[in-house]
Amino acid sequence: MSKMSRIQIYDKLDKIQIPGTDISPIKFKGVKGLELTDDGNVEVRIELPSQAKGHELEFRTSVKEALMTVEGVQSVGVTLIIQDKAYGQVERQNLLPNVKHPILIGSGKGGVGKSTVTVNLAVALAKAGYRVGLMDADLYGPSIPTMFAIDEQPEANEKGQIIPLEKHGVKLISIGFLLEDDTPVVWRGPLLHKAIQQFMKDVDWGELDFLLIDLPPGTGDVQLSVAQSTRVSGAIAVSTPQDVALIDVKKAISMFQTLKIPLLGLVENMSFFRCTDCGHIHYIFGGDTKMDAGAKLAAEVLGKVPITIAIRECGDDGIPVTLREPESEAATEFNSVAKKIADRLIK
To answer: Distance of alpha carbon 283 from its chain centroid, rounded?
Structure first.
């Protein structure tokens, strides 16, 4: 009798899809036991997520049929264990119990103006009378200190909690407040996770209506840590209207969906340039015509912010355009987006 191959058995199992998911028992890491006997008997023990409940017979049959095609296999026994937890479910804490609406702002890509959008939305919400905080979760490239023109370190209260700095009616925390200038953050996942949790539970945020969380580019450890550490009300995606940016922001949107975080919509930043001399609109990132980023991403467009010299100057000077030029086209768009968010979330 031919000797059975464990590699072939695992390969067959990897081609079977767990009911209710798009993953195999191998990739799910659900194979908890595999016993082979000299006379061709196979006994396999598999743990499955809760989506498989009610489909045990179907799955067991698929496993048996697949393994019986392996050379040397004479019989197959399958033991299934159904977990209470669903595949894709994130174990969430709530380290921000006094914050009504934590909101993630991400892009998947750097350089699209995500922090500029975050800062101006925070100020717009504060101007509208809401209690607002801003957490700079971009630990590798914090820009919030510059965009608020803050060069000081926060102090601690009598409980040992960090007192967030406050400017323009917005409470602020950033790793940039705690490091010397030009000091790089060279941390791996566990340290990043710890820092994110400290920014939540060890900061005296008080009672807030909104906490805007400025995410770093990508879809990695920081994003997952934030999602695991609080109950997020929704996420906002930021992109420029060009294919090279949309490719990455689509990944960010997919990440929000995987983490079961509602997408509030898309802010199309640097959407167009309006000539200050003649008023003609140029769609810099969309060729001769407007590119509709929202249509390409199947996402609601909350606002389309123009590219202007004023936005750049305001960011460098630490005075958001919503304050310095409140009647400008850019400020009007930021205020409109902020109102849409508040109307949707504040009942």
So the answer is: 28
